[in-house]
Amino acid sequence: MISEVAGQYNAQELENQIRSLWEKEETYRKVRMQRVGGKKFFFVDGPPYTTGRIHLGTAWNKVIKDSVLRYKSMNSFEVKDRAGWDMHGLPIEVKVEESFGFRNKKDIETYGVDKFIQRCKEFALRQKDDMTAQFKILGAWLDWDDPYMTLKNEYLEAAWWTLKKAHENNLLERGLRVVNWCPRCETAIADSEVEYWDETDYSIYVKFPIIGEENTFIVIWTTTPWTIPANVAVAVNPTFQYSKVRAIKDGRAEILIMASDLVESVLKIGRYQDYELLGVLSAQQMQELKYNHPLGDMVPRQKEIVHGVYAADFVTAENTGCVHIAPGHGLEDYELGLNHHLEIFCPVGEDGRYTEEAGEKYRGEYVKEADGVVIADLEEKGRLLASGRLAHRYGHCWRCKTPIIFIATSQWFLRISDLRDRMLDEVARVTWYPEWAGSARFADWINNARDWCISRQRYWGIPLPIWTCPDCKHMEVIGTAAELEARAGRKLADLHRPDVDSVLLDCPCGGKMKRSPDVFDVWFDSAVASWATLRFPSHEKDFNEWWPADFITEGHDQTRGWFYSQLGASMVSFGRAPYKSVLMHGFTLDDQGRKMSKSIGNIVQPEEVVQKFGADILRFYVLGANAPWEDLHFSWDAVENTSRMLNIFWNAYRFALPYMVLDKFDAKKADLSKYEKSLRPEDRWILSRVNSLVSDVTAEMEGYQLHRIVRSISDFILEDLSRWYIQLVRPRTWIEQDDPDKLAAYATIYEVMVKLCKLMAPFTPFLSEAIYGNLVKGLDAAALPSVHMCNWPSADEARIDKRLEASMALVREVSMAASNARQKGGRKLRWPVSEIVIAPAKDAVDLDNLDSVLRGQTNAKKITILSPGEKPRMDLELSPVHKKIGPVYKGEARAVVQAIAAADAFDVKKQLDGGEATVTHAGKDYKITAEMVQIKELPPENLPAAEFSRGYVYVDITLNPELEAEGYAREIIRRIQDMRKELDLRVEDQIRAMVDIESKPILDLALLKKEHIAGEVRAKDFQLGLGLKLTGRLVKDWDIEGICVRIGIDQI
RNA sequence: GGGCCCGUAGCUUAGCCAGGUUGAGCGCACGGCUGAUAACCGUGAGGUCACGCGUUCAAAUCGCGUCGGGCCCA
After folding, report:
1. What are the helix and strand counts (H, E) for chain A?
2. Which tens digit of pLDDT belongs to each residue from A301-336?
3. ipTM above 0.90?
4. Strand B nucleotides below 7 A of a protein CB?
5. How far is the CA of A819 from the C1' of B30 (A)?
């Protein structure tokens, strides 16, 4: 049986019940099992990093994923949905280091790498469990029991296999490169791991002495004085013109060379008082110059280096137009150095301190702290032209926030830049939502793609499976654990460091190969997720059946992150994109569009929203707040609004339940087909609407227009279902017998609710499950055990009647206009009116057969529809036109004016239509012409009007005894109903009621409706009179339109 | 400095792809309804559609530029 539902929508309580139901019944497993063998839908979960806490953005992310997967499952797809966890890398290392107070790698080595790895692993696993619980609360149905974890051996193998494949494809190489380097973590970091913010640094202008020209200098500018010891060249722009000037400062002259356009500004900064142009140099001539290093006698190596000038496009017309080149400390510098076979001089070690090569004075100095020393030395040697401070964007290690430096080190690279064009082809083959995410944003990123530095000099990561022979330099990449174990002749329980470090392999040369001590860049971990999640390479069958992924969805920051890393890893191993479609979603910002951050204190935790409102409400809110690819401005008000909306849905759902229960309604025996003939137009209308909704939502889902779906559903619930259909259907539910009219209403409501609840299931899974449990499972023990096992509803085209929908829309408009007009005329809706007149302006209005609906909703006895342009009879007001009357009547003018005032306006107008009119004053007739009066049309006081889209609606509020009797009856009914409520009576309870009305005329009116009143309030015993002695459990005095009415009621 | 997205009422937003009277919700003011009721409904005030220029009979919508916000890059 269907049950009644007590009380308001309590999301938390409902969700707890559904959660335990799902757990008890293993609903998730059943749902996935049910679709096995269906068309495959391979989803890959972008693995959140195991930080321990989910935030609003990750919640939104999982809600989108879950909604899409539930939708696909309802559409008979077998979905692959392993949840994923990103568990390696510096962030966790740093956390563990912090917990022990470690400062550098030496501390870790002292503590023991094996124990350190163990701590990292425990930390990651604990965080994973915490976050799993948080995701489950949201109703996110992924495979949480068997997630893919980047720390598992099977996952490590997927990374190994991929690297081996890249090696076979000749895309792996070791090389000296300038990399972003964190001197604290002592590791290379990826471009994507660099965080930029403003930092105040030195800004210095340095003079490099030209060889063979006395007192002549080329001027460069830099913000990193510590790189000066590594300078080997100067770059100039081949299109610029350079000037040689004789500059005067404090009576001393020197000859300076710099870009012609920048002379003035540089000399100003250098506080030169005067200068004279000696000549111009072309970029070509500039390249003939040689100079001495300004600190040549302090950095021994610099004495042996020849310093020249080279052309480079990247030189801009800023500062001096001459760029300091240190190939060991800059990316462009490095490339320029390679092109011109310059020495890649890098006198800085992995700890960020100068090495032996930097010379006696600088050795051991931390470079960022050496800036001041270098400046002082330049000053002392007279090579400093100017020195100041400058705030500019500078990169930092994203974990420990240490400013990064660039140093040339030997690293492993994937030669991604070679694949740029092929990657762009692949991107064009992927379907992007929105389209520009791929064609514009991602393509732009790929166009700038550089080789991928995949090695990190750390501990907690996937070890590089690269073994090299120290003797003959032979190198091999191992692809699987089995391969390694076969070669090593022993088992390895865990493929992490340090165990794997101890494995030595035989080299063909007879020597022993050692593992390259690095671990993978953590971005490489998640990059292989699409096949690692299928347990490839050990399970090839699944890979062949599922790969590549049908769908992934992540935030727009993942353009450079996971969208890219996956593409890169897939290109080097499989030569194609690992996904077929990508939905790029936005960021969660606060209600003012600011980033959520601890310092502003505007962070909203998803669980806070769940606790205050519920998971379904959070879900429906984030899905509906805006388009998925736009940033979400979180607003508590909007969440509350969503909550209110779902509450109305809940009320709509539960409103009919008591009657259905009372009548033992059984949809199985009494479905719509039995009542086809008894359906009212409004029933057919709501059925049309719900089927239109199904078709709209299905269409929008194809383009992942999730916000439009939520909007359509909300509109349907509020406008069509709650504000309209339920209002229309209410009186029918009170009919007591087995009237087909009532049963047709039940069947309609039932059909609509069940369809709607399935339609909402992917988005509000808890609420839908609860409603389905009652309405469907409550009636049919054999029904599918969960709404999430039902098929996605299909739109019943035969029920869609667009003309009827349009007519009803018109009826609603007229009805609203009528209530507007009533308000103007001061007539409450409770009081019936005799007539409502619809006066269309242009096009004729046809209500189809919805006349009775309109009458009911407007509480009107009659609806009159005028022809276009026609108006109801207006009051007319005559005003005399003195200018015209005066000249004709002269002395009698005053009498004429009075005659006009006294005349009947309608009569005058009628006469004037035929020519002249006659008006009378003091027994004398006067003839007047049309120009002597102005006739104004006024809506009569008893006919207030309001505008609607196609004209005006007039409401005739004139009262007569019959209408008044009805009005008073409704007033009395409402009060008795109110009192029934106060006594907490059930709908079907009978009462005894006595009503004492102090006014005889009103009593007489009420008596006309005595039977009606008694019926409406279910009073078996009903007395209506004057001076009655009131008894009953509840007696109350009421004021109805200024009359005292005393009512007493009693339950029988 | 470059790429992409966004800017509509006090707030949150729809409409923009496909040009044709800017539409909602919250909040505010007033009124109504009452067996969905710790709910609900109506009316009203409130918009130079960020700004400027262009295309067009017609621009919130298309194009260019400026300003502001977000993400990414340099």
Report:
1. 36, 41
2. 888 888 999 988 778 777 888 889 998 888 888 888
3. no
4. 2-6, 11-15, 21, 25-26, 31-44, 69-74
5. 15
